[in-house]
């Protein structure tokens, strides 16, 4: 097409813009009205039976009803959750593949790994916060401290003789204790284990003197009289343990260290599809049976908008990035 005058050129361009805008609007409406057109796959970067797996499967029936399509769970554990989240990042951005990510491969990884196969901030879209979970401070049942203040006093008196267990290098268990050490002003040597059972056993046997881990993983040893709990790392007390004070209540105002998880979509997924998934997952998490099941496992129900979740992740990345850098934590 040829334009003889500037006016004709401008009119032609304006017409092209209008056509393009109409086409994009039609695509957006089409994306929302036709999604989902097939089963929705949720990649879980952890084994079957893990808390992440339980969360996704727990809302699957509600989402199946709302979507008119089944929700398919695909477990892809390994490399601290990065294998599964990399698979999400490289999936087609059509809303039919999601992933449930957590602290490690989203907020911690960029500061700990020398190189990641994906960029969480660029390659993934936060959809909705699903749950969060605090750690609890466990010590041997025979430990002289009866509360967190007494533990800090005791730890300071030991100098560099204290060691603490964690459920793994670079885990929330590890980083939360590093934050606790900095906040309370005591020293302790990190001893990483592969998971909660061996870490908790090391404390029960007094091979290490403390551990921050999620409460359900410690319950059997607490009930068996081999561990005692001194504090919880959330801003509020746990509904399941209203007698257990928070670290903040012990005189360290503002202390907050949570393990969290949420749904993510590949970058490029249409905004209206993200909004639809967000709304439907919020509805699924409001189901009384789902909420009761999560509370039994010591989980705090999340929810909220996609924008709120992104802001939360940005804040968490800044907070934990500083802790990781200060502690010099690296995973090759």
Task: Describe the protein's architecture and organization.
- The model is unreliable at 1-32 (pLDDT under 50).
- The chain has helices at 6-34, 51-58, 60-67, 82-89, 103-112, 120-123, 148-158, 172-184, 196-204, 219-223, 271-285, 288-296, 306-327; strands spanning 40-44, 71-75, 97-102, 124-134, 136-140, 163-166, 189-192, 210-213, 227-232, 258-266, 300-301.
- It is globular, with a radius of gyration of 24 Å.
- The strands form two sheets. Strands 2-1-3-10-4-11 form a six-stranded mixed β-sheet, with helices on both faces. Strands 7-6-8-5-9 form a five-stranded mixed β-sheet.
- Helix 3 crosses helix 11 (271-285).
- The chain is 45% helix and 18% strand.
- Strand 6, helix 8 and strand 7 form a beta-alpha-beta unit.
- It folds into two domains: 38-132 and 259-327, Bordetella uptake gene, domain 1 (D-Maltodextrin-Binding Protein, domain 2, 3-Layer(aba) Sandwich); 136-250, D-Maltodextrin-Binding Protein, domain 2 (3-Layer(aba) Sandwich).
- It is built from 13 helices and eleven strands.
- The protein is α/β, with parallel strands linked by helices.
- The longest helix is centred in the N-terminal third of the chain and has 29 residues, at 6-34.
CATH top level assignment of the largest domain = Alpha Beta
CATH H level of the largest domain: which superfamily? Bordetella uptake gene, domain 1
Fraction of residues in β-strands: 15-25%
CATH topology of the largest domain: D-Maltodextrin-Binding Protein, domain 2
Helix-and-strand structural type: alpha/beta
Q: Gap between N and C termini, in Å?
A: 57 Å
CATH architecture of the largest domain: 3-Layer(aba) Sandwich
Rough outline = globular
Q: State the total count of DSSP E strands.
A: 11
**Overall number of domains:** 2
Order of helices and strands: HEHHEHEHHEEHEHEHEHEEHHEH
What is the arithmetic mean of pLDDT? 90
How many strands, what sense, and barrel or not for the largest sheet?
Answer: 6 strands, mixed
Tell me the radius of gyration.
Answer: 24 Å
Range of helix content? 40-55%
Give the neighbour order of strands across the main sheet: 2-1-3-10-4-11
Number of helices: 13
Low-confidence stretches: 1-32
């Amino acid at each position: 097409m040829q334009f003889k005058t500037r006016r004709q050129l401008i009119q032609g361009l304006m017409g092209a813009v209008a056509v393009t805008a109409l086409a994009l609007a039609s695509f957006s409406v089409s994306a929302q009205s036709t999604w989902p057109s097939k089963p929705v796959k949720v990649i879980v970067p952890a084994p079957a039976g893990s808390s992440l797996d339980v969360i996704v499967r727990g809302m699957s029936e509600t989402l199946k009803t709302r979507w008119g399509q089944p929700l398919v769970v695909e477990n892809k554990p390994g490399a601290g959750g990065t294998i599964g989240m990399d698979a999400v990042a490289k999936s087609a951005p059509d809303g039919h593949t999601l992933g449930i990510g957590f602290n490690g491969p989203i907020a911690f990884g960029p500061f700990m790994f020398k190189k990641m196969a994906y960029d969480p901030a660029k390659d993934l879209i936060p959809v909705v916060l699903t749950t969060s979970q605090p750690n609890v401070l466990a010590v041997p049942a025979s430990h002289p401290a009866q509360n967190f203040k007494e533990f800090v006093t005791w730890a300071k008196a030991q100098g560099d003789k204290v060691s603490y267990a964690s459920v793994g290098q670079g885990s929330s268990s590890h980083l939360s204790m590093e934050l606790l050490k900095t906040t309370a002003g005591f020293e302790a040597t990190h001893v990483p284990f592969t998971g909660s059972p061996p870490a908790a056993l090391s404390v029960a046997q007094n091979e290490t003197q403390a551990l921050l881990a999620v409460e359900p993983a410690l319950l059997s040893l607490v009930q068996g009289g081999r561990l005692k709990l001194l504090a919880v790392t959330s801003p509020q007390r746990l509904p399941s343990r209203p007698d257990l004070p928070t670290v903040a209540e012990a005189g360290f105002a503002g202390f907050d260290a949570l393990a969290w998880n949420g749904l993510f979509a590949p970058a490029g997924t249409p905004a209206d599809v993200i909004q639809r998934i967000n709304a439907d997952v919020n509805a699924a998490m409001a189901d009384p049976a789902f909420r009761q099941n999560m509370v039994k496992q010591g989980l705090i129900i999340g929810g909220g908008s996609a924008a709120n979740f992104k802001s939360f992740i940005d804040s968490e990345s800044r907070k934990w990035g500083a802790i990781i850098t200060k502690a010099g934590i690296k995973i090759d």
